[in-house]
Design a protein that fits this description.
alpha/beta; Rossmann fold; 4 strands; about 40% helix; globular
Length: about 150
């Protein structure tokens, strides 16, 4: 399957998924890349600490507005990238037909989850950003190979 669109999913859609979305957009121009949350803080901007850490690395989360994941939304994307195995399980319960297109954001880095930094120390936000960035690099490498042949 050719990937033309990616939905990045976490819980609140204010820390990990907006950061992952913006990192992937920078690495994969031309693809439709958006984000959502399984328990989204609908209408909220990106978390201030996440935005500050991203900004310090040259990534803007400006203009982000949190939205709720729904099965209909998920169906409109080729690939759904989640932060934790429990997120994949939850999507499978909500929309079993989406399980085959739902993978971990850090699938290619050897890790098995990107922990939620929300409300934690600044160094946790920095670690989360680093992990998201490495995972975005890995996805971009693999998806570009498929596109470039």
């Amino acid at each position: 399957m050719e990937v033309q669109s990616i939905l990045v999913v976490c819980v609140g859609n204010i820390c990990r998924s907006p950061t992952g979305e913006r990192l992937l957009r920078a690495r994969l121009p031309g693809l439709q890349i958006e984000s959502a949350g399984l328990s989204a803080l609908v209408g909220s901007a990106a978390d201030g600490r996440s935005a500050a850490v991203a900004e310090a690395q040259g990534v803007s989360l400006a203009g982000h507005v949190a939205r709720q994941f729904t099965p209909a939304l998920g169906t409109s994307f080729d690939l759904i990238l989640v932060m934790e195995p429990a997120h994949r399980t939850r999507i499978a319960r909500l929309a079993p037909q989406l399980l085959g297109r739902t993978m971990l954001f850090d699938h290619w880095t050897g890790s098995r989850e990107i922990p939620d930094p929300y409300g934690r120390l600044a160094k946790v936000y920095e670690s989360t950003f680093s992990r998201l960035s490495a995972a975005a690099d890995a996805w971009a490498l693999r998806l570009r190979k498929r596109v470039d042949g």
